[in-house]
Design brief:
Elements (H helix, E strand, L loop, with lengths): L2 E8 L3 H16 L3 E7 L4 H10 L5 E2 L18 E2 L4 H11 L3 E5 L5 E6 H10 L5 H4 L4 H8 L2 E4 L11 E3 L11 E4 L3 H9 L4 E5 L15 E5 L3 H9 L17 E2 L4 H10 L5 E4 L5 E5 L11 E5 L15 E7 L13 E4 L5 H11 L6 H14 L10 H14 L4 H13 L6 H6 L2 E6 L2 E10 L2 H5 L2 H15 L3 E8 L4 E8 L2 H8 L7 E4 L5 H4 L1 H9 L2
Parallel strand pairs: 1-2, 1-15, 2-3, 4-5, 8-9, 9-10, 10-11, 12-13, 15-16, 16-17, 19-20
Antiparallel strand pairs: 5-6, 7-11, 13-14, 18-19, 20-21, 21-22
Helix pairs in contact: 1-10, 1-11, 2-13, 10-11, 11-12, 17-19
């Protein structure tokens, strides 16, 4: 059964992880192969929840970009170095190919054989030294001529002799191959001169048996003399005419379509070989194949903006979106089931889906969703919290056998706020979101803590890391919001060339890159809207 990947946003928080797992569990119980995923490392708070329940962290998902393996059509034809040019031409004609990947006897890729390679070989052919210059086999010769051996012992293996006409018997050496018509004298003299194979060009009814008996193989060919000469050149083994030094682009089957499109467009090449990891041929692709691919099926939870989602989300088939945020620039290739509600946590919505499906979550899943609600609403203190969040949390607490919601919630939040062993890069990027406003990008990172003094003491580290982020990504403004979950205040460290936006947004002066926002705990409701309004009025 095909996988459905369920994931939250980048820099995942507890709601993002727990809602992904809970949503996956629901769809699994409904018969789908839903796989919970994460788009980054889990934070300490989330680790506390998962460890408490003995639940494994979801698998890390780096991309859902379409790969070559997702293409609905890949040409699978190949030709072996031991096959004849005739076999290659027949296959090219049948499949309308201009070139083919060549493999060795063990199936490993050698190079590409093109029509022009074959044409150039024909221009250089001298039939007198055909078999000494180009490698081929007796089997290929017989197949190319569509010959019938009517007497003698036809040899096998590689041909190491010369091709002669009956008129050249004076230079014939023992073991050579002679081509002639049905004249008995020509055949007899060829046998007597030591020919290994005599190719006779005539219809079977016109054939006159030789008077001389020997082990020399007589092969009857139902083509004219001149046609037979032409066909003999096609018996040359593909391996004998290969140019292994030509520059070719080839890809691995796991390569992403987004990475190879430009290469294929600009390359002076029509067919592109695709290889397995071990160097064997997976197939051949052309530019036209790239528009028809299978999209990975996904369910997005706790986000809807592509900028906050997994790499390659535009290539995916988005089956569902379950979110409690505003929608911005959301566009899909197919119809999508969307479930969004103005509540404080995605898990509140997910629990509603359980109830609608008449499926009761097990104890672990109930505690996952309860943890998400307590985290996202800061123990119901956030202005984003609704009465529905509180009601659902109480129901989940019963299912999870949690007697004291506040006590469990505080234990979880405290476990997630210890930063003593964390680098400033880890702290700032733990929950960072980017908001494009006009031609600017504003980064707002947030962390909840019960020990705000820990971070104030590390202000020099904060400044250094934020300046590094601004220099690396070009943010116009960066806010690092440190939220005191006990007193429901936020201390904001802000840097960048547009600090004036912060002062206009909150009607307060930024002093030494700091501003205290009293009774502010929600980035979504109490910070971002004011920043956007101030930026638009600049």
């Amino acid at each position: 059964m095909e996988e459905i990947l369920v994931f939250g946003h980048k820099n995942p928080d507890t709601d993002s992880i727990c809602s992904s797992i809970a949503m996956s569990n629901l769809r699994k119980q409904q018969g789908f192969n839903a796989i919970p995923c994460r788009l980054g490392e889990i934070n300490k708070e989330t680790k506390f929840v998962l460890d408490k329940l003995g639940v494994k962290s979801p698998k890390l998902l780096k991309t859902v970009s379409a790969q070559i393996t997702d293409l609905n059509y890949v040409e699978k034809s190949t030709i072996s170095t031991e096959d004849s040019i005739k076999e290659a031409l027949d296959l090219m004609t049948k499949e309308n190919f201009s070139s083919l990947p060549v493999i060795d006897t063990e199936g490993y890729f050698k190079t590409m054989l093109s029509i022009s390679d074959i044409a150039n070989t024909y221009l250089e052919i001298d039939y007198s030294d055909l078999f000494s210059k180009y490698s081929t086999t007796f089997e290929n010769l017989k197949e190319a001529l569509e010959g019938e051996v009517i007497s003698g012992n036809y040899p096998e293996g590689e041909i190491a002799s010369n091709l002669k006409e009956a008129s050249e018997l004076e230079s014939l050496k023992k073991g050579d191959i002679v081509i002639t018509t049905s004249l008995t004298d020509g055949i007899d003299k060829s046998i007597q001169a030591g020919a290994r194979v005599v190719i006779v060009c005539c219809r079977k009814g016109d054939f006159i048996s030789p008077r001389v008996t020997s082990e020399c193989a007589i092969m009857l060919v139902r083509h004219s003399f001149f046609k037979a000469i032409s066909l003999i050149s096609q018996s040359i083994s593909v391996g004998g005419i290969l140019n292994t030094n030509k520059v070719l682009f080839n890809f691995n089957k796991e390569d992403f379509l987004s990475e190879i499109r430009g290469i294929m467009k600009d390359a002076n090449q029509t067919n592109f070989p695709v290889l397995e990891d071990d160097g064997k041929v997976y197939g051949t692709i052309r530019t036209k194949h790239l528009i028809d691919f299978h999209r990975k099926k996904v369910i997005m939870v706790d986000h809807n903006e592509f900028s906050q989602s997994v790499e390659g989300i535009q290539d995916a088939h988005i089956l569902e979106v379950v979110d409690h945020h505003k929608f911005a620039n959301f566009q899909t290739n197919e119809a999508t089931k969307i479930r969004t509600e103005p509540v404080g946590c995605t898990s509140t919505i997910v629990y509603g889906l359980y109830k609608e499906a008449k499926i009761e979550p097990d104890e672990k899943t109930a505690l996952l969703m309860l943890s998400a609600i307590l985290s996202d609403t800061l123990l119901f203190k956030s202005p984003t919290c609704t009465s529905k969040d509180v009601e659902v949390a109480k129901e989940l607490a019963k299912l999870a056998k949690v007697d004291n919601i506040s006590e469990y919630g505080m234990e979880m939040l405290v476990a997630g706020t210890s930063m003593a062993k964390s680098s400033m890069k880890e702290i700032i990027n733990q929950d960072k979101k980017i908001f494009p406003i006009g031609d600017m990008e504003i980064a707002v990172a947030q962390i909840n803590t019960v020990q705000i003094g820990e971070l104030v003491a590390r202000k020099e580290e904060i400044a250094k890391e934020i300046e590094h982020e601004i220099g690396k990504y070009g943010y116009s403004l960066f806010l690092f919001v440190v939220t005191d979950i006990i007193n429901s205040n936020s201390l904001v460290f802000t840097y960048g060339k547009e600090i004036e936006i912060v002062e206009n947004a909150f009607k307060k002066e930024v002093v030494n890159n700091e501003i205290l926002l009293e009774n502010v705990v929600s980035r979504k409701k109490q910070i971002i809207p004011f920043l956007m309004t101030a930026a638009q009025n600049m």
